[in-house]
């Protein structure tokens, strides 16, 4: 076999095989490097190459990736299926988003998009329920499901937290959600919170006649997450919440496997995603992170608020469309809109994202001048009004909780 050099990874006449994973990168070459050189190094370093020309003795499996397209700064690379371990997202990412992110040959590099081939994709389970949760767990019909996260994020006692949950459920919301940095601290231990919240949940269900559930944050080391998932199922809850970026995809995969046995849905929070996706010319796009989350098998995923609300967003609508799109029969994912939302934004949010979503508001519920129950009622009223095609202001005329929320926050 001849030496393996960088040039061997570039073939602009190449057509990828159907079984190959195709990745699209934004590449800005280093000052002393031309585009073709930099693009060849992307394919090399992310598959089987290194910086030195190699003389390989005997025959080895050829696992080279191929850079087959360069258009401006957009580079497409095809990876052979045999490069990847089936069903291992950490291994896939060590290739396509690994050392290349720090190569001196590039000034900036961002993994923008992946075209996932069938053999690799179907070696993962995908979501167990996906957006089906809206009607398999709840009876939401055509409306979005709704959630709230108690604020302040941390510091509430277990009693206070569970009481807020009760108020929110009775006020009309479907889901109570833990905040990302609330797990198992002394002021509000996991086991007590789970038990007390579910007792409140049962009361709220009896009072309202509606199904209610709880997104309890099991995020921790993998073994602890699995133990917590067992507790959640034993106590009759339908969901676990996992912070998927901070735990890592290997841990998400382990949780997904256990949730299959337990019949639990997975709510994926994405704290730290912006470390990968906020700088538009570098890192890993939210689009790709969302693809990974679906393939690993989460059922609900935060994807932003289509530019409404308090946080920076990357193309929420495009990401949601990908999460709903056909992927070898794999279940879809329910997008979660969250971050600075309040009842006055709901009509515009549904206009931008549609109704197959979960709407989550923390401050926009508990910051209501008349408290959590009224805030929850206002959020639910805004959803019901919008789905019934009634303008929020008109609906507010005979829905005082919504009226107060609109007076406080307006509709922008
Ligand atoms: C929202 C939230 C969520 C963010 C996450 C918060 O609270 O609980 O964690 O929405 O961001 O802590 O900020 P508010 P994203 O409703 O009070 O803003 O959904 O973009 O992943
Ligand atoms: Mg939060």
Automatic annotation (TrEMBL):
Cofactor dependence: Mg(2+)
Superkingdom classification of source: Archaea
Protein's GO biological process: AMP catabolic process; carbon fixation
Active site: 151 (proton acceptor), 269 (proton acceptor)
Reaction equations catalysed: 2 (2R)-3-phosphoglycerate + 2 H(+) = D-ribulose 1,5-bisphosphate + CO2 + H2O; D-ribulose 1,5-bisphosphate + O2 = 2-phosphoglycolate + (2R)-3-phosphoglycerate + 2 H(+)
EC number in record: 4.1.1.39
InterPro entries cross-referenced by the UniProt entry: RuBisCO, RuBisCO_III, RuBisCO_lsu_C, RuBisCO_lsu_C_sf, RuBisCO_lsu_fd_N, RuBisCO_lsu_N_sf
Binding site for substrate: 153, 270, 302, 338-340, 360-363
Free-text remark on how the cofactor is bound: Binds 1 Mg(2+) ion per subunit.
Gene3D superfamilies given in the database record: Ribulose bisphosphate carboxylase, large subunit, C-terminal domain (3.20.20.110), RuBisCO large subunit, N-terminal domain (3.30.70.150)
Residues annotated as domain Ribulose bisphosphate carboxylase large subunit C-terminal: 137-409
Modified residues (N6-carboxylysine): 177
One GO MF term: ribulose-bisphosphate carboxylase activity
Site residues, Transition state stabilizer: 310
Keyword annotations from UniProtKB, A to Z: Carbon dioxide fixation, Lyase, Magnesium, Metal-binding, Oxidoreductase
HAMAP family assigned to the protein according to its UniProt record, in alphabetical order: RuBisCO_L_type3
Function: Catalyzes the addition of molecular CO(2) and H(2)O to ribulose 1,5-bisphosphate (RuBP), generating two molecules of 3-phosphoglycerate (3-PGA). Functions in an archaeal AMP degradation pathway, together with AMP phosphorylase and R15P isomerase.
Similarity-based family: Belongs to the RuBisCO large chain family. Type III subfamily.
PANTHER family attached to this UniProt entry: RIBULOSE BISPHOSPHATE CARBOXYLASE, RIBULOSE BISPHOSPHATE CARBOXYLASE LARGE CHAIN
Subunit structure: Homodimer or homodecamer. In contrast to form I RuBisCO, the form III RuBisCO is composed solely of large subunits.
Note: Because the Archaea possessing a type III RuBisCO are all anaerobic, it is most likely that only the carboxylase activity of RuBisCO, and not the competitive oxygenase activity (by which RuBP reacts with O(2) to form one molecule of 3-phosphoglycerate and one molecule of 2-phosphoglycolate), is biologically relevant in these strains.
Protein name, entry field: Ribulose bisphosphate carboxylase
Species of provenance: Haladaptatus paucihalophilus DX253
């Amino acid at each position: 076999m001849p030496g393996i050099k960088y040039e061997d990874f570039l073939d602009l006449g190449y057509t990828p095989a159907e079984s190959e994973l195709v990745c699209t990168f934004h590449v800005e070459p280093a000052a002393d490097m031309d585009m073709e050189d930099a693009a060849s190094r992307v394919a090399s370093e992310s598959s089987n190459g290194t910086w030195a020309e190699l003389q390989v003795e005997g025959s080895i499996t050829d696992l080279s990736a191929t850079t087959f397209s360069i258009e401006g700064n957009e580079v497409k690379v095809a990876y052979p299926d045999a490069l990847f371990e089936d069903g291992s997202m950490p291994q896939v990412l060590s290739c396509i988003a690994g050392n290349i992110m720090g190569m001196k040959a590039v000034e900036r590099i961002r993994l923008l998009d992946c075209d996932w081939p069938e053999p690799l994709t179907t070696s993962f389970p995908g979501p167990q329920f996906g957006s089906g949760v809206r009607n398999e767990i709840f009876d939401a019909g055509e409306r979005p499901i709704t959630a709230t996260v108690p604020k302040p994020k941390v510091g509430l006692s277990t009693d206070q937290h569970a009481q807020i949950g009760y108020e929110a459920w009775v006020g009309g919301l479907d889901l109570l959600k833990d905040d990302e940095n609330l797990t198992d601290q002394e002021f509000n231990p996991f086991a007590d919170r789970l038990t007390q919240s579910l007792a409140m949940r049962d009361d709220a269900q009896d009072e309202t006649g509606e199904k209610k559930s709880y997104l309890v944050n099991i995020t921790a080391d993998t073994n602890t997450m699995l133990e917590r998932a067992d507790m959640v199922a034993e106590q009759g809850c339908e969901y676990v919440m996992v912070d998927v970026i901070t735990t890592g995809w290997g841990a998400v995969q382990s949780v997904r496997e256990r949730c299959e046995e337990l019949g639990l849905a997975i709510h994926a929070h994405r704290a730290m995603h912006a470390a990968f996706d906020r700088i538009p010319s570098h890192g890993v796009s939210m689009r790709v992170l969302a693809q990974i989350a679906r393939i690993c098998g989460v059922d609900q995923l935060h994807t932003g608020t289509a530019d409404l609300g308090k946080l920076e967003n990357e193309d929420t609508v495009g990401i949601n469309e990908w999460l709903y799109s056909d992927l070898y029969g794999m279940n879809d994912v329910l997008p979660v809109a969250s971050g600075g939302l309040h009842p006055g934004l709901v009509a515009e949010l549904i206009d931008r994202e549609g109704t197959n979503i979960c709407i989550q508001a923390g401050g926009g519920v508990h910051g209501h001048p008349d408290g959590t129950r009224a805030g929850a009622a206002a959020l639910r009223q805004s959803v019901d009004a919008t789905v019934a095609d009634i303008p929020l202001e008109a609906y507010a005329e005979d829905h005082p909780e919504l009226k107060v929320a609109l007076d406080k926050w307006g509709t922008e």
